[in-house]
Amino acid sequence: MDLNEPEPSWRLKLRKGLATTPYKHFTVLAEGRVDTALTEGYSCPAGPAFMGLKTWSSSGDESAQMLQAI
Questions:
Q1: Exposure class string for 11-50: b at 16+ Cβ within 10 A, else e
Q2: From CA 40, how far away is CA 59, in angstroms rounded?
């Protein structure tokens, strides 16, 4: 690598397979019910509801734990 060339970004390294991460992408869905006031920034009518969450985690169980914590 020439000293005048900038080092490729970490995203480019991941895309080309030159770097790896222990995390994988998961999409988690949960069914619930909205009965009380929601936290600021959330809005939906009262009653049955679904929530979706996209995560980067080391396992599906870890993603599910994130959803339960939220």
A1: eeeeeeeeeeeeeeebebeeeeeeeeeeeeeeeeeeeeee
A2: 29
Amino acid at 26: F
- List the alpha helices (DSSP H) in 1-70: 10-15, 60-69
Q: Which residues make beta-bridge pairs with 12?
A: none
Compute the residue count for the chain. 70
Q: Do residues 20 and 14 touch, judged by C-beta distance below 8 A?
A: yes
Q: What is the pTM of this model?
A: 0.58
Q: How many CA atoms lie within 13 A of 24 on its CB side?
A: 9
pLDDT in tens, 24-54: 999 999 998 888 777 888 778 888 988 899 9
Under 8 Å between Cβ of 47 and 38: no
